[in-house]
Amino acid sequence: MRTFPLQLNYSTQRQHEAAGVFLPGSSPEQWLRQLVQFDAGSAEITFVIVPVSSSDLHPRGILVRLPAEAILPEECRGQEYGVLGNRLFVPVASQVLPQTSAHEVAALLGPDYAVAVWHPQSGLIGYEASEILSMRDLLRLPPQRSADWTHAQPGTAFNRRLISIAAPWPDSPEKMLENAADGIGSHSKNLSDLKPGVGKSIKDAAAAGGMLLASPFLYAADFLANLAPAKGSRPTWLSQLQEKLQRGLQASIRLNDARAREIERLLKLLQNSPDEGLKYAIPFGGQGTSSAGGSGSRLTKRIPSFDLGRLFGGGAGENWDMPGDLQVQLLKNYRELAEREIRLGRHRRAAYIYAELLNDLNTAAATLVAGLHFREAAVLYQKKLQRPLDAANCLRQGGLLHEAIPIYERLEHFRTAGDLYAQLEDPAAAEAAYRRHVESCVSKHDFLTAADTLQQSLGDSESALALLTENWLRASDKKICLTRAWELLGQVGRHDQAQKWSQELKIEAVPQASQLGFVEGLAAIAATYPDDLVRHSVEDTARTWISRSLTRRDSQAPLMLRVLEQLAPEDRLLPRDASRFLKPLQQTKTTGPRRRAPQGKSSVSKQARKVSAFELPVAHGWFSVTATRRHLIALGLTADSERVYVLLRSWEGSRQDTKSWWDFNLKDSIHPILIGIDESDMSTIVCVRPNPILLTQRELSIESHTFTVGTPGWLPNGVSGLATCSGMTWAFESSSCSLKGFNRQGLPVADRQLLFPPDWIHEETRQIPMHAREDVVFVGLGSMLYQAGARHQLRALQLEHEIDALIGSPLGTLARIAVFYNQGGAVLWPQANGEQIEALPRDLEHPSGIFLKDGRLIVHASGEWRVYQTRQHKLVHMGNIVGIDQRPLAITPGPAADQFAVWSGGGPEEIVIYTVDN
């Protein structure tokens, strides 16, 4: 009998009647708040808990089985589910292919499962009858304890409250290293004492590497043989020297043979007895090009545990030459053993492998932090990696506040130092640190942060208000400073002062480039200020500035009129009058020749419809734009390249921007900035440079979401590729050709050794194409496509041409990967049986694109737009797209499943959202 794998596919049409609803949330409180809205008795409502994944059992939400003829409340935020065979719940907008009968569903689930849920992200989950819950299970009291606590005796208490704990030893990292240097090389045991097992294959493989060591002897012996006389009765000095060189050559060959046998035994030990093999493992140099074993032909025995003394003090060793394939095999074994040690909770042994065997100090430090060895991690960060901020963060995590504070002060992180002083109950030192932070921010014209410190940390709202009202025009972001000042006025109830300031703003000397943001800020103030008289006064001030701007009839006129409409939403004739005012301006604009549709390539045209558009702030040079289905993220530089900006904007809602920045001189930098966004987690943005410049992490809030923006301390230096998904961050290091995976806590949970393809050419400015999907990542190196995962074997696929870019289908849909070359590309279905690949046309030059949720692939290349369908593991050209004139620098997801956004850069920084007729 033939069998077929079942697939859950997204459908644009409703396929099932609602029999259940999935309610997101991770706590009983959230579930109860939604369950009480249902118009049914508590006994009739049953549900099961849906986990995040098979490896992460934290709740993603609950699947509620709806009672007969139940109606969903209007406030319900859940996703409706249908039922197959009365036991298998699937989304109503999904299809199970091939089609399955109720009898087949029952046979597949078997008698053990009472109900099953097929969630697009969590997968297929089965539940026994005992796992079906009701509302009473959420309200049940815990079992009563038999112990009697009415006669409990109080224990011994400290005579004062504990403020901090400081270790008496070591007093400093230098003394720690000095004391740890004893005992280096004290063990003389060697690998030859173990069971022998000589392998001819590895001996032959090492012979080529050994000839490099013997090459001086060969050259000298050959040269002297040509100088020596052909015949002679007595040995000459040349013949004697030639004999010595030959004996040296033979000794060199014997040494390499013995070392080859040692390496053979080491490889067998690492496979069969890894704990024993680690004791004799060969450390590799910084670039993995040489290895240091013991002197002579024997490997030195070491204690496989992280030791700062060995790391800083060094020891006796000698480089062992070996072929490249053996080096790669050892590196692969070491990385696999490091993962094994982390899974077993032996973080010191894993740190030993990373630091001493692989010379990967960044990952070693991250592993020590995960194992709560904060002091040693801090020493690595400060002394070896020259990353004092990460060292201070480690000391802070470990409760070593007295040692962390001086580092923060040297780095001028005075606010963090003040927080630690406050935690140590030293108010005078805390206030002094906060004051220094305010002075530092004011010197950098960062008045917003200075005012926030004054209000939040020092409780001085009056000084914060005075700082903002006097300096908002000097701030880099005048609009945010202005609105923040008005918020403070409303909080402290200074309505008279607000009324007076509103009148003064009518004659304020606002630069023309900042007037639009100034008017938008006034409109936001007029909508939220708590006093009616002040609101009317601010509205009048905004109208005064709008009228002045409209007399210039410049490019800001449409945006100014849009703000005017926001100020008077009750005026139904205002939009008509605004349109009449703009009509003469629109007629004077010159229009270029229309692009004719390409002939002979497709007889079908698909119309693109413009859904909406908006502009990014003009004050920054934006160089990177990306997005999720909910948020837009942009990176930019100031004109002098001394400040990096990040902007967050919600696709929906008020579209209020949230910004942050870092002060760095990037004029001479040649490296790109990488961005990794975890769309499923919706909580983290990572932007990192592949050089030692670190962007300090900060939390930015927009609507109900909080993002962490910056460079995490556990991310290695020299990263040239980055991808994130489902709580995993994948980083590629070009120097070692290794791929590392980190979890949410920064713990390295995957480490894969890759191979550079023969056609690979490394360029410093090049970004490695990567795409992460759930717990799998795809990496393009030259013409090789690698697929790796935390629980998956490394797979490699040879493609026709060098890979320029990778994109993937949205989460919750069938996995598809689009590979773009310099000319043409291909589409892959990773989950299909075998490697199924469909080629894109070769006439696509420098293609870029995006997948929509219904399986369509939008591609831009050669100045034109095309749309392809990728359903049923087939690539079908649907036609050329008309109605888009932009040449995109970035194509990102839009707010809806069938929408995408196009950013063209240059000129007005406009982002346009489109949808294409299906």
Automatic annotation (TrEMBL):
Xref: InterPro entries: bpX3, TPR-like_helical_dom_sf
The UniProt entry, under Pfam families, shows: bpX3
Output the superkingdom of the source species: Bacteria
Q: What are the MoxR-vWA-beta-propeller ternary system domain coordinates in residue numbering?
A: 5-180
Region Disordered, annotated ranges: 584-608
Q: In its UniProt entry, what is this protein called? A: MoxR-vWA-beta-propeller ternary system domain-containing protein
